[in-house]
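Translate structure to sequence.
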């Protein structure tokens, strides 16, 4: 399954772990890296990755630890510097359930699919909650499991682009990581 739901101006997609990474083009290298860490049918653990694995992605990453016993709430272990610059807030150490940051029931359902069905998730839409509808973000999340089976974390990343060329963006949010663009 690729398309899951479209709500208002947001599109939600879910993908099987063995998806052809070219189907998620803007995140292809990251998904291929994640897929390379599988051990048979065992899902990668956060500890399976090294810092160097993420060359070019460092500032774009987000990692969340699911709250034990919950599949729809997590605490950000890492909220990359490009996300801090783009959104104007550092969510490292914050729980999703405590934030007023554009999360809704669809986001929680998508998380549940990631945690229980071990799916890759992708959400794409405008940054309406900051009144920046001219900017579109895409957020991918992939399950992680310390024991290879029970999802307890996710590895994610985001990209953004200006979807209204008539509105100039005065601030460069792209960072410098290998010139990666959306």
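Result:
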């Amino acid at each position: 399954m690729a398309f899951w739901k479209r709500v208002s101006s947001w599109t939600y997609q879910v993908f099987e772990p063995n998806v052809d990474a070219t189907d998620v083009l803007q995140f292809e290298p990251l998904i291929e890296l994640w897929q390379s860490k599988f051990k048979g049918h065992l899902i990668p653990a956060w500890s399976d990755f090294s810092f160097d694995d993420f060359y070019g992605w460092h500032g774009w990453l987000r990692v969340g630890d699911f709250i034990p016993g919950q599949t729809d709430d997590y605490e950000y272990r890492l909220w990359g510097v490009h996300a801090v610059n783009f959104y104007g807030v550092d969510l490292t150490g914050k729980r999703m359930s405590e934030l007023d940051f554009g999360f809704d029931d669809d986001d929680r359902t998508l998380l549940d699919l990631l945690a229980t069905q071990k799916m890759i998730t992708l959400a794409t839409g405008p940054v309406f909650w900051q009144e920046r509808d001219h900017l579109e973000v895409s957020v991918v999340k992939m399950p992680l499991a310390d024991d290879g089976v029970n999802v307890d974390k996710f590895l994610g990343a985001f990209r953004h682009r200006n979807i209204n060329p008539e509105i100039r963006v005065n601030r460069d949010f792209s960072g410098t990581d290998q010139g990666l663009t959306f």
